[in-house]
């Protein structure tokens, strides 16, 4: 059975703790892991731009003694000649031991996992999910706050299109007594399916339109970029950019031990003069991410009991209608679904089918 990381939803908190523990062990004695993946190959297939995710995955494999192949511009691969996802993935699965994929369309990592024959890691699928960024965030929280529970968490910015936020909320809502302040404009508020998860997990949350009013009792502030590339027009984007900016004045109202995280890249939403504040952890966070990814690679490749995704997907009659779903682009994909609160949901993009 293949082991994949498509959505942290499928991973128990016990398994998440295992990844974090492993990451800390690697941080303490990296030399012990220098040959842990000798002879193994990671393929990074990035159909969308990336700095941190791609390079930290590659560095992670290199530091474990393995090697990497892949592309960061699909137009330099046979994708430019019209090759479909299934064929590309089938071929790469025959070359590599593990595949890390990023794609602009929702559900692509799930689709890839059907054909890879080796573990697939979702490195971002459109505006949907980004589970290894969440691992990065959790390793940071665990190292810097010493806990993943009993936290008041502010998330601010593009909560509609920000996949990092969706994965983060989904995962942290599983831990005890976490509460959320969702800070965004009306237009960029979190998708309903994320609210459903908060409610299902019995998690407290408030909606806010003011960072200044909400900052004072947060334990963590998660800032995000407005996702320009997901907007229909430049005008729509311009109406949203720079609405929320964390500056010195606002930070002065925050607790002394509040930590500031950001998946990066930053585009104005945190002023540069804050970078030297001890609460600003976003650069350190990117370092933690590399260790989290080293731990994930090791566990996926070497731990028999780890994260076997043995859900049996159901074939359903209707096709997902979400225009941003991979099933709209790759016709051969089956109509896979699961049931949630009596509703039929798309296995690829998590949107309602019927
Ligand atoms: C994020 C992403 O790609 O979703 N970046 C990252 O992986 N660190 C956030 C973003 O692009 O805004």
Largest sheet: 5 strands, parallel
SS elements, strand count: 12
Query: What is the H/E order?
Result: HEHEHEHEHEHEHEHEHHEHEEE
The largest beta-sheet arranges its strands as 7-6-5-8-9
Structural category is: alpha/beta
Output the radius of gyration: 20 Å
Chemical compounds bound to the protein:
N-carbamoyl-L-aspartate
Number of helices: 11
Question: How would you describe this structure to a colleague?
Answer:
- The structure is a single chain.
- The model has no long low-confidence stretch (mean pLDDT 95).
- Helix 7 links the parallel strand 6 and strand 7.
- The protein is an alpha/beta fold and 354 residues long.
- Helices cover 32% and strands 16% of the residues.
- The protein contains eleven helices and twelve strands.
- The strands form three sheets. The protein has a five-stranded parallel beta sheet.
- Helix 1 crosses helix 5, helix 2 (52-63) packs across helix 11 (282-302) and helix 5 crosses helix 11 (282-302).
- The longest helix has 21 residues, at 282-302.
- The structure holds N-carbamoyl-L-aspartate.
- N-carbamoyl-L-aspartate binds at residues 52-53, 124, 130, 133, 163-164, 225, 263-265.
